[in-house]
Amino acid sequence: MIREPDLFIAIGHTDREATQRLNDLFHDAATRRVSDVHLLFQEGRCQICFRAGGVLEEVIVIDAQMAKHFDEKIRARAQMSQADRHRSLDGRMRLRYADRSVDVRVSVIPVVGGQKIVCRLLDQANAAMSMDSIRMTPMTRYYLDELIEEPQGLLLVCGPTGSGKTTTLYGLLGALNDGKRNLMTIENPVEYVIPGIGQVNIDQHVSFPDALRAILRQDPDVILVGEIRDAETAKIAVSAANTGHLVLSTLHANNSALAITRLIELGVDPQTLAAALRGVLAQRLVPTIDPDDGFEWQPPSEFDSAWLALHGIDAQGLYFPRLDKEQKFTNKTPIIEMVKADRAVRAAIVSGQGELPIFNAAARQMQFETLAQAGVRLANDGVTSMDQVRKIVGQDAILPEVRRLGEVLVANRSAELTQITKALEIQVSRYKQGRLTRLGEILIEQGICTVEQVVDAIGLTESAPECAFFFVMRGMLTEKELKATVQEWKSQTQRESLFDMLVNKEFLNKEELYESSFVSCAGRCTSCGASHCQRTEGGIAAPEDAFSGSGLPVS
Fold this sequence. Notes:
β4 (89-96) and β5 form a beta hairpin. The chain has helices spanning 16-31, 64-77, 138-148, 165-176, 208-215, 231-241, 256-265, 270-276, 302-310, 343-351, 355-362, 371-380, 386-393, 405-411, 417-432, 439-445, 451-458, 464-473, 479-490, 498-504, 510-513, 516-527; strands at residues 36-42, 45-52, 55-63, 89-96, 101-111, 114-123, 153-158, 183-187, 198-201, 222-225, 246-251, 277-289, 296-298, 320-322, 329-340. It is an alpha/beta fold. The chain has a 7-stranded mixed beta sheet with strand order 9-8-10-11-7-12-15, sandwiched between helices. Strands 3-2-1-6-5-4 form a 6-stranded antiparallel beta sheet, covered by helices on one side. Mean pLDDT is 85; it is low at 525-555. The protein has 3 domains: 13-123, Beta-Lactamase (2-Layer Sandwich); 129-286 and 331-374, Rossmann fold (3-Layer(aba) Sandwich), CATH 3.40.50; 407-539, no CATH class.
């Protein structure tokens, strides 16, 4: 059997230049990590654009003769008819360069005045991409590692086309591919070929539901469903996740909470979904600033500040790269919003009240940050620019109503975003060592905050009622007094500190609030759910998660 040439080949001197330019075009696109190459043939010319970072950018316009060679060579390589110009066609080709192999999905469709060819680039280097090469916070990585070790359940990755969903899923597959599990995928089409994994290609002969039913008879441990598109696939995937299989899949949704409600809209029973779901990641890709390019820092512009306010983010203390028009971007970095399906999130799903209760429940998790918060953190770290974050995240904003310790400390100017983030990294590294250290304790230990600042901030968080129960246990406050004060506190539009209310009512005094045993207990309430807080009387209930209340600091 004759082996296919590695690249486009010239058949004579007349097409030699076109062949070289076409090979260079796709190599350049792959090097720049372009997701799609668009070729619009109209009016005797061809306009070529790259989609990078979710945005189309014109690269070159070629003349009619060069365009004719491009068309012929792409069709020939993708095994498409040269004569069929009246209907849409799909094909596939592989280009093998010295430094990489690129699979290309080709779609051709007739348009007024010509045709449009769109080539989706699938860099096979992504097939071997490890989780270590995907940038995420230590907290998100810790929980992801935990989730994929679950024997069963559903893990969703959501976002628009070109947001890196498939790359993330293949990174997770790579972490699971230890030779001890039967891994199967169902994709339309199979994007990356991985040795040792059974991969089913969806076409006109096999549908997602049919393939999923068949795979369930193949004794799988892990199933990757390329995309949940319809009610039937959704129900089978959730059922599989509830019957001893770990199911990974993608869904088109703007955020993590919307992905959950989308499944319910597809007909999945909320109770069944709550039992099956383990976590949801929403993500986008932002271009990464070339580290070799120097840049200056600047505070948020007026436009930045308005956008930050829309997304509930405090602009104080933030600085972003100031880039000129010639500034280069290299590669892309994901911004990730992760919801872990803990007890509070499952209760919010079952309640059927939409996205906000899910966000409120997730906001108490250590790893949770909205897409906007994640993007701003990366810009503040100099990884990307605020222009790119605004462009990728957009204007839509659902703001959790829950206020967390780190968030309040930043809003009170007691700490900065980077300080809280580093403290959270210390917290998770200690947790991996089996040490439970409270966020407030770390901040005091690092000399970032005083005891008074931490206690005052806790009084403004959702954990304040649980922490105040300490005084009931010590006989310094009656449960009736606390219950009445909490009800009044929760009814306020602009909440003052619960602790200040208790002091103003002369139920407590300031000295008792800053007493060392309460500081320790308050930290425990906001970050490890101490047993004395597991109460529900009067709306007083402790968080389930071991890190509740310690969330990221953006307000």
